[in-house]
């Protein structure tokens, strides 16, 4: 599908086919494409918790304040941010060097830059984890749209409830949830958008 049509056609879906399905292969394909999203230093701060088992979806629905679309969707993907992504610094520097982006003698400098920026800065770790996860989430939704699935990004859930019920490791934080599957609704009118003039400023305020 042409990119402009994907962007223009995407809607946040609230009504999914309750018996709709999405294959594990399609989920993996969608996530594989989402991992092509950009990230600071290529640290790839994202992780994806896929919930498609009917009983587990019911549990997720409860910590999402009872929203029915969590249960009706073929799957729900909790997009997580990794607070420890900076610990990949050496492997990232090795990859950059092997592919000719970084001279061997500068590898240690890059590793030190990454550790200096993130190592002892919890605010930066969290901000970057959310940013990276959000970039991957948007890519994921566009890929799903291209493959014929509806999606809905959600922040209407209890992060600590998700952590408890799904035993999240401490270094992974929920950024958002995306319900995904065949949609009931089609060709709904686009909700209003602010104009370019309303949201754009050139060269300063």
UniProtKB/TrEMBL annotation:
Superkingdom, natural source: Bacteria
Keyword NADP: no
InterPro entries assigned to the protein according to its UniProt record, in alphabetical order: Nitroreductase, Nitroreductase-like
UniProt entry keywords in alphabetical sequence: Oxidoreductase
Annotated Nitroreductase domain residues: 7-181
One Pfam family in the UniProt entry: Nitroreductase
SUPFAM superfamilies with a match to the protein in the record: FMN-dependent nitroreductase-like
Family stated for the protein in its record: Belongs to the nitroreductase family.
MF (Gene Ontology): oxidoreductase activity
UniProt name for this protein: Putative NAD(P)H nitroreductase
């Amino acid at each position: 599908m042409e990119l402009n049509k994907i962007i223009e056609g995407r809607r946040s879906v609230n009504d999914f086919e309750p018996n709709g399905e999405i294959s594990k292969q399609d989920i993996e394909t969608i996530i594989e494409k989402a991992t092509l999203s950009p990230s600071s230093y290529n640290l790839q701060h994202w992780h994806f918790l896929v919930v498609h088992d009917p009983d587990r979806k019911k549990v997720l629905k409860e910590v999402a304040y009872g929203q029915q679309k969590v249960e009706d969707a073929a799957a729900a993907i909790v997009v997580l941010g990794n607070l420890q992504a900076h610990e990949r610094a050496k492997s990232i520097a090795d990859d950059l060097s092997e592919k000719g982006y970084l001279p061997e003698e500068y590898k240690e400098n890059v590793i030190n830059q990454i550790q200096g920026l993130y190592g002892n800065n919890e605010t930066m770790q969290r901000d970057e984890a959310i940013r990276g996860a959000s970039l991957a989430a948007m890519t994921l939704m566009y890929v799903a749209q291209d493959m014929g699935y509806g999606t809905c990004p959600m922040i209407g859930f209890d992060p600590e409830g998700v952590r408890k019920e799904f035993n999240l490791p401490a270094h992974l934080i929920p950024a958002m949830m995306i319900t995904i599957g065949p949609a009931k609704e089609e060709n709904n009118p686009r909700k209003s958008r602010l104009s370019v003039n309303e949201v754009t400023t050139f060269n300063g305020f």
